[in-house]
Design goal:
166 residues, Nucleotidyltransferase, domain 5, seven-stranded mixed sheet, 7 strands, globular
Length: 166
């Protein structure tokens, strides 16, 4: 059996609720992830925000990753979120729901046999890191992830990483 559960909120939720952040169930945390790249291939930043069912930020992380493309930025955001959660104090007591607005990353993580060879190793690394805890992945519209989206876009002008912990 696979260690992860797959859901697609943007495809399954009716009406306007799909465009808003939804709290995770009790016993789960939600990691909203996003990558931003200036003009298709350029300065890039990745952001992750870990929140509980009360919408409290437990961990916010930003990292400038140099020059890259949007797909690489989204994959790196997911990989670093996996590592951060795997090393967190919550890994034993909570499952984690990763949310991204990148349908390609969602597809590759759910069907790794479809990954192009250039991204294959990073996808396999992500799945390996996540095999140590309970997780699920949702693809959500950007409007359901506005904080991560805004922070990622503003971070492309920063050249140093920062972590904020509650």
């Amino acid at each position: 059996m696979s260690p992860y559960i797959l859901r697609s909120f943007c495809c399954s939720l009716p009406g306007p609720a799909k465009d808003a952040w939804l709290k995770p169930p009790t016993g789960s945390l939600k990691f909203n992830i996003d990558g931003a790249v200036v003009e298709g291939f350029g300065k890039a930043d990745i952001r992750r925000i870990l929140r509980n069912e009360y919408n409290e930020s437990l961990l916010t992380f930003s990292k400038y990753i140099g020059f890259t493309d949007a797909t690489s930025a989204e994959l790196l955001a997911f990989k670093e979120a996996c590592v951060l959660f795997g090393e967190s104090k919550w890994v034993e007591s909570h499952s984690v729901i990763f949310e991204s607005d990148c349908s390609l990353v969602f597809r590759w993580l759910t069907q790794p046999n479809l990954v192009s060879s250039i991204f294959k190793q990073i996808v396999l690394d992500c799945l390996d890191v996540c095999s140590n805890f309970r997780w699920s992945l949702n693809i959500v519209p950007r409007t359901a992830n506005p904080i991560a989206d805004k922070l990622a876009k503003t971070g492309t002008n920063r050249s140093f990483p920062w972590v904020w912990k509650a």
